[in-house]
Amino acid sequence: NVFAALLQKIRRFSFPDGMSFPNINQVTVNEYTPGVGIGSHVDTPSAFSDGLMSVSLSSSVVMEFSRKD
What is the dihedral of CA 53, 15, 34, 25, to 10 degrees? Predict the structure, then answer.
């Protein structure tokens, strides 16, 4: 399974900033065609309290994050 192998690599990877994801257990894959993307939204904080990783394959990406105060 491609995703099981990906999860294993992420669990073992040492990120430059010292962050790690040893307990990662979920992958969400989205495909966006050129010029189309995801609009501004707020995710449920409890869903990502232990971290969030985004990977862009084969194209550049611009992401803006902000904290709700």
Answer: -30
Predicted model pTM: 0.51
CA atoms within 13 A on the CB side of 21: 20
Residue 8 is encoded by which pair of tokens?
């294993």
For 25-68, give the DSSP string. Answer: ---------TT--PPP----GGGGTT-------SS---------
pLDDT per residue as tens digits for the range 20-66: 888 887 777 888 887 787 888 888 878 777 777 777 777 777 778 77
